[in-house]
Amino acid sequence: MSQPISTTIPALVHEHSKLDRVAAVFDSENISYTFSQLTNEMEMLAAGLLSSGLEPGDRVLICGSNNAQFFTSTLACARGGLIFSLINPNFANASQLHYALKKGEFRAIICFPANKEAEFLNNLLNEIAPELKHSAKGHLSSKALPKLTHIIMAEEDHKHAGTFTLSEIFGRSNRERIEKLPNFEDWSTHQLAAIQFTTGTSAPAKLVGLSHYQLINGCRVAAEAIGVDTTVLFYRIYILYTSQLIFSLLLMHGALCCALPLFKIPVFALVALAPFVSGTRVLFPSPSPLPKFLFESIKKHQCAQLLTNAVALRLVLKIALARKIELPSVKTVILIGERVPLDLLKSIAKQFQNANKIFNGYMLTEVASVPIITSEETSVVKNVGKPLRGFTVCFKVTYAPFITLPQQLNRTVLNRI
Q: What's the whole-model pTM score?
């Protein structure tokens, strides 16, 4: 196992800034970013955000999923010293959005399209803060949300009073403002990078703080466990006009196809940071977590690894069987999020004929990673209480306050070593 990476997200991105190889592909948007382009996008958007009046340390709520600019917005926030938080844009109602914004004390919100309707988030924001209709951009003053000043809409066709569009933020960037960005070389790897709401399944949702170190090494540990840094080597021989033979080594990494939403912070840490941690090319077939053209994307980009969950994969396999689709490039299937039934494991082996590695992992927001991963049908039992190297499980005793006599309850706490 490799040593922990003690750096920050912007420093990690800059380490790869000279590479002209593709790092991320957003297939439905026809967008591909090389490492160099991602660095430039990060710098430009970070400078634009700070020039709009935001300051390092401000909190930014990013509502969206697997869009290209959702991806770059997170990197830009990290570059500008802004603390980002990722969330599903499909709120049930305005009160849910209000709770998130108020609880997190966010100064800015970046809104990407939701699945429900056009201008869905803008309508919710106007319901929560009617002052928005009469506010100058970057100067919202709301009784309901006193901390919130900046509304940024990624829906470029819809411009409203009091809101920036993302292109306007990009337009505020220039070379001088980029040069004035905070010096990330002075930052600690343990500096706060993100705050994230927990899922709220076993207890009320709470906010947890995540450092650059946690996000980067959460990716490193999980990526090594499932082998997303597997490298295929190709040799090319070039004959120059001098008749001298020169052998050059071309590294091509098997692509990792992501069919899970990036607003889940363990997914973001694993997939969005994988290009910089392990050199892996990542593919997002569409903004939807269950992509309509998943098979086409996997075939076109010859993906070696598929990241999804059991519910989605069961549906995918039914469609593949009905349409007689084969995906020979897939060597590894990674299922995270819930328990995988035995019959599903067997059907994977039948329909992904070359998939010789099948992993099942459990996400934990508090460590921004997938700290428990199993790879065999019988290893689920063997690995109970055994997290990946780099994590340790502690058992703490708590007491039930609603019982007269103290009753001890075991509570598992998963900490990073």
A: 0.88
